[in-house]
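WARN retry 2 of 3 for item q-0093 after timeout on previous attempt; input resubmitted unchanged.
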Amino acid sequence: MALPTGLRRLLIIAAVIALFGVGWLLGWRRPGALEEMPLTASQSLAQAPNAPTTRPNVLLTILPPSITPPPTVTRVVQTVTVHVNGAVARPGVYTLAANSRVIDALAAAGGLLPTATDDIVNQAALLRDGQQVYVPTRGTPVPQELVPAGQAAPASKAAATVAPSGPINLNRATAEELDSLPGIGPALAARIIEYRQKVGPFQRPEDLKKVSGIGDKLFESLKERITAP
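OK item q-0093 returned
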């Protein structure tokens, strides 16, 4: 059965339109169209084989916090230097901590001798730098500077003793008899007695020069007034 001419033309036109539509869907486009499409940045990097692929490397350096060392504290230890002599075990110069007392100086010097007059020395007094701590021997005159204010100095037996007429024996003389010699005061008399107690009897008068504080000149003025043993 033959189709009418008009209907046949409409079917041909529809077929052509359908053919073009299918071709367009299948990518039937003019040559070179794909090459003219702009590429993205990622596509450009992927298609460039010789292009550098490294990226900028930004390093973030984290430094440790700055630690400031604490200031060095220098501790100044203050001291006092005193001279301890008289009736102590080890007379001499001693350096003690500041705020030390007389009792500390006496302990550093080995303590008191049995013949010491300890009741006249204020052992609780604070020490001063350069101070002399003198402990008198029992029976010897006490220096006025050691006597507490308002108290009379103990009377010395030497005041009531008649000076001996002959030479004094260094091994048997009392502190008062030694004090009566020219140039020998309470301090030297105490040292002579201390020498006898520690070293032993004097073997000859010249041994007196072994006592601290007695030199050749003083001995020359005493040698006619002393004897030993």
